[in-house]
Amino acid sequence: MFFLRDNLKAYKLLQKQLSCIGCQVELDFEEEEAVVRGDIEKGPGGAFGAAEQWELQVDRVLINFTESYLCYHVVEPKKAKILLQELSFVTDDIKVYREAGYPVVVGETEAVHEKIAILEKSQPTRKELPIVEKLFKLVEEEFNREMRTQYPEVKINIGSAMVTLEGPDKEVQSGANTLEDLRKKVKEKRVKLSTALMTFIGSSGAVSKYQTRFQQRLRNPVSLEVGSELVMSSLSSDALDEAEATLQRDFDVADVELQGALAAPPDLDGLKEILFKAKNEANSREFRVDVSFIPGTGGTPNTKVQLVGYRENVNKLKEVLHDYQINQIGTQEVLNLPNPDMLDCFDKILGMIGMKQNKVTLKASLFPYPCVLVSGPCHLVKEAKQGLISALASLTLDTLILDGPGSLQYFQAEGKVGKELVESSLSSRNSKTSLDIKLGSLIDAQANVLVVPMINNNLTSTKIGNSLFQKAGNAIKSKFDSVAAIICNVAPGDVLQVDAPQSLGCSKLFFIECLPWDGVRGQSVKALGNGLKRCLDLCVQQGFSTVAFPVIGPGVVLKYPMKEAIQVLMENICQLGLSASSGSLTTIQIVITPGYPDSKECYQDVYRHPGLHVNQGGEAIFRSLTSDLDDITMTVGGGVKLQLVFGDITDETTDAVVNTTNFVDFQMGVCKDILTVAGADVEAELKAATSTHGDVFVSKSGEFPCEALFHVCGQNDAVVIEQMVIRIVEHCESLGFKSVAIPAICAGAGGLDPGVVAGAVLRGVKDATSSSGLNSLTDIRLVLFKINVFLAFKEKAMQMFSTAVINKVSVPQQQQQQQQPPSVEADLSIICNSSTRQQSVFRFLGLSRKDVDGAMTKLTDLYQAQCSSQSFRKEELKDLTQDDVKDLKQLVETEGLYVELSQGTLKVSGLKNGVIKVMQIINASLRGNLRREVRDREEEDLYAHVAWCILGHRGNWERLPKTANHSLENNDVGGRIVDAQGDKWTADLPRMEATRYLGGQTAKLKRLEHLRDFTLPLYWDNMAAGEALKTVELLPSYAEYRAVKEAFKRTVGKTVLKIERLQNVHLRRAYEAQKKQISDKYKQQGGECEKILYHGTTQDNCDSIVKTGFNRRFSGQNATAYGEGTYFAVNANYSAQPTYSKPADDGSQLMFVVRVLTGLYTQGQENMRVPPPVSDQEGHDRYDSVVDSVDNPQMYVVFHDNQAYPDYLITFK
């Protein structure tokens, strides 16, 4: 209102707009209101029509007017003061008024906004922001860039721990928010470094140096802070990663252990002087490296040198240290032995040549190859080495090959002929190569040669190459680079030969140039195969004795499928085994890294590779196959044999097998695997058992091939596990078991540490077998499924038992299911061997040719005097059992005999004692087999006419096997009888009962004597000779009675008065003949389709059916809706209707339970006299029966009387 009063322009504009609608305005300042007046009838266009329309017109004018003007209230004190004092803000079009103590600017909207903008700029805002200086440096560049771009009018002043922003208030506030947002975006990364390296970085000025470098070179600055960890901060994650990589690359710490003389004065003092001098030179301009000497702990004399600082300087000091070790304190040189066999008897050779060790040490060593290590002062070492070379060259070396079995064994035992000859016989060699599967890292393998993959002629292109570099450092890199520089163009499959640094413990490194996987038929497989073959050839050519291969290919670089990588490796190794000679290469190691998900699969694929089972001329291509997972055998208390076995417990066949369970969840770990094999009955028995934590629950074995299953819960407690093992041994003794298999209790699903479990189980075995004498138990097998668990048990066993021996097999054997051999001759072939395998090679060393020739002649004569041979005809061998053949095979191996089989005749040659033992086994077999044949004939004859049965747990009579049948018939049951399921029982013939040996359950026995021309069903009672019909009333206590009654009562609510079994020989014989005919007819479809059905009858018809069977000629008495045959119901309630089972005078009814051969059936039709043909083409081939409904038969009709047999007669009411 004041503005309209003071601004005539605005006032006239309002009046003009109101006059257009016939109105005028008056300002009433007393009432503080504007009053608009007008004549409704005289408005433009006539009357408005209504007062509401007039008011609407006025409102529209006033709204349009007020929207063109703005009232802006200034409440900020500083701005209000300026506005009131500065007269230039008031113009003809802009007025300033007071309202409630605050100025209000009034005018046209655009003009007011311009004045307010001038006002805000006229008084700058100043804002101080506290900030950590180090943190601000990380964001300073980004902050300045954003402020210049977004808020150029804001002035930035940087002080100590403070940033001041000065300028327009709004922009200053936005700048403060920008700084806070950047501060929140700062990321932090913590890097764990060794304490020594952290100390060096903190004290050497490296922090400020690298912060400056990062600010210059990286997109975003990085700050460093040294504490318990190295803390890095930056706006960029990439900058943090690059900074970390730089620090890891530029800094290093190396601990070098000093041994021998170098670890103590005066050599230690000399080393300190040289290292400190080199350190001072490196630190002349800046602190670059530090050296410290750390004495040994726990009384050990070894001292450790710690080098820490810039990697470049650390490596230089390592070279200084290495040079000092080589040149200042003595040296060691390697002398290749002319023959590897000299290794084992080197001390005797020194005595023979009269060479003494004074200041120089001579030591024979297998590594890095068969050699002599000559150690001592440099000048003396060279002199001693030359003298040894001359002395060895003067010796006479010769070889004697004894072509016959057992020669080496004889001369290692009773055939020793005197000191001078034994000392001359150095060793026996087998030219074949052994395979050894090692679990560990290739860089730790002890072999002459290590084989390493690479890509693009790059040392660190693969994980193995990286590991070698980490272990050997610049020593290996310089050697590799020098070779790679000479051979620039390396093709896939080529091999780079690099001398190995001493720190690796090998002589050579063979690097194979590889290609990433490109398919089975691609170039990668071909290149890898060529490289592997080249490595093996080089080993033979250069006289190396051992080589170690990894499984090259699986991994993130080459990406071979595991099986393909193994196939390429094994093909080339096996090809070497098949070649004429492997030269000096005695051992090939295949190194598998444990701890990976596929480590076990890799081991098994290598161990079971088909190529290992190839033989050449009847002889295995490799001398032996050993691995770190070979069985461990040891003798514990009482002479019990304890074995550690890497395998699956479900493959065990011991008398008892132990299952681990928590008695709650039966679908996990070992428990699930064992119950899967044992079957549902055992699982049900286990589920029904009450909780037996701390004890052993014994169950039947079901389908598991053992006598009993022991179920235990280790409760994840080592003490409980130890006590549990003791109880397992006690149960084996009480039950008379000879062997037991035990898993690693709680080491699988239980999650207990394998080392803890191993200690508990082995202590339990040791205590159980040593506390008291054992009469039954002879073998305990600890069956371990996982690699890490087996290795933990192996380590503990080797510590606890001095008798532990690793069982190394001479020839790898594939696991096969036990089966009977097709013939005796095929059986005997497994004990035959090759004459070339029986050659023993003896090396002779002497001072003269005469001495060597004399020793060789004497050895030959002694052996030939001890030899013998014997032939056995086919007739003498035909009765050998599988066990006999196993015994012969073991005897041939232990006695070193030569065996050949030709046209059924077995010829055995070798030392006399061994040949005599073979004769004793074959003669004993002849006598034993004669007795077995007589017994087998007796059992077979008896089985044909006498059947001994045992009542099964489900109420069915089960026939006992022939052996038990014979024992019961002859009252020869002093021991046990074994039923068809393999369960053992003790028999009480007077009571006709048997007691299960395991569990104590009792069962009835029954003896059936078959008729001359008829075999009685097992559930029948005996029948006298000539007796054709017998009716047996069943007692309610019989399981047979209960089974028949329960089936009847499912659909009939009446009371059963009596159940009789009907034994009609003539009817049953005819029924069985018909059953065989239908069974043969539908053999492919599953047999005769026999069903148990019901047939209601009357007293008049009952006797006739019992004596002569069902007669279809009487059909139609009740109904013939589905044909003129004999009707049988599926459910008893149908046959129980009075229509079919007519009640007698006393209200009782009769019903037959009938065995019916329903065969192939179809829909029945009224007036059918025979079943219809199956097809129109073959009219003679008819259905066997018809039904009321093919989809859901409730009634069967047969037209052949012999297709039904009345099995039981039920009397009910």
From TrEMBL:
It comes from the Eukaryota. This is Uncharacterized protein.
